[in-house]
Structures are given as structure tokens and as C-alpha cells.
Amino acid sequence: MKVMESKVFLALLHYPIYNKDGNKITTTITNLDLHDISRAGKSYNVEKYYVVNHLKSQQALVRKMRDYWVSDYGASYNSNRHEAFMIMEIANTLDEVIEDIKKRSGKTPRLIATDAREFSNSITYKDLREKIFHEDESYLIIFGTGWGLSEEIMKRCDLILEPIYGRGEFNHFSVRSAASIILDRLMADQWWE
Question: pLDDT: is 163 or 72 the higher one?
Fold first, then answer.
């Protein structure tokens, strides 16, 4: 297995997010996003998976689920889920995530947004993969919920991953599916060689 030089972190933002009318909102936590992205992140040796939501009621919900699966009972009931949930953290803001990564890695992370559109600073999976495997950096891959990351978040990002294109014209993945596809494209062993 090829060694990665970089550390990779994930963030799932629930604010500021657009709704279908283009208004900034806070989206609610989805149980499946917590489970599935944690499991995918752990499978690809992601350092931490941050669930970012500033609402205390939403944080309490995440904390309750995480605490259950990392407890003695949850761990004995499903040890795989216990292990996956150990990488998940709760954060109020993106800035809080960035500060935590600086403390953990000693580096300010390069911010990588995900979106279903192309931008002037879009990067291919191949090019970002090369950076992850050959540069000693910290990367924070940011996923949005709702109808996507707000413009203010997109402007803060160093790079934006190119969209995931399937074989058909339909292009609307759930965030947990997109996270799994993106992690595989960026961090899997090169099975095609």
C-alpha cells in the first residue's frame, strides 16, 4: 500500500448552506451522514471527520449518537461502528475546525471545497491525489448539505474539486455517497495499475 505524505480531514458543513431558493440556512443533522461518512473516513484513514453545526440542539443530537456508539454497550454491540465514530468531532464553525487541525497537525490546512459545478480554481482528482500522496500538507475536504456551500465558504477555499460525473445526465449524489466516491478517488490504492 502506497504511503500518503499528507494528512486528510473531512468537514460536513450545515451552515452557511443554501436552500433551494438561494437563502442561507442551517441544515439539520442526518443520522446516515454521521454513520456513513464516519465509516468511509475510517476506512481511508482520515484523521478526523468534523460535523459542523452551530445549533446546540443539533450538537446534542450528534453527541448522543456518538456517545452511544463509543460507549461500552455500543462498542460491544457493534465494534466497527465504535471504531468509525472515534474519528468524528463536533464543531460550531469552520474556523473552529481549522484551529483544531492546526493543533493536531501543526499546519494550517489547505481548504478543498466540493461542488457539483466547475470553477476557475477547480482541481482534478488526479492532481489533488498527487498532492495528497507527495506533499507533506494537511488537507480539509469540505462537504456541504442542503443545496450547497455558500459563496463565502467557496471563496475561502484554496481549491474546489471537480464535480463527480456519472455516466448519465443525472448528477445529484447524496453527500454520503459523494464523500465515499471522493475518498476512493483520492486515497485508494491504484487498483487500475
Answer: 163
Question: How would you write 102-130 as a 3-class SS string?
Answer: HHHHCCCCEEEECCCCCCCCEECHHHHHH
Question: The domain 7-187: what is its CATH number?
Answer: 3.40.1280.10
- On the question of pLDDT at 74 being above 80, the answer is no
Contact between 128 and 161 (Cβ < 8 Å): yes
**Which residues partner with 18 through β-bridges?**
24
Which residues fall within 8 angstroms of residue 73, CB to CB, at 6 or more apart? none
* Cβ contact 107:138 at 8 Å: yes
Which residue type, as a one-letter code, is found at position 169? E
pLDDT tens profile 117-165: 888 999 999 999 999 999 999 999 999 999 999 999 999 999 999 999 9
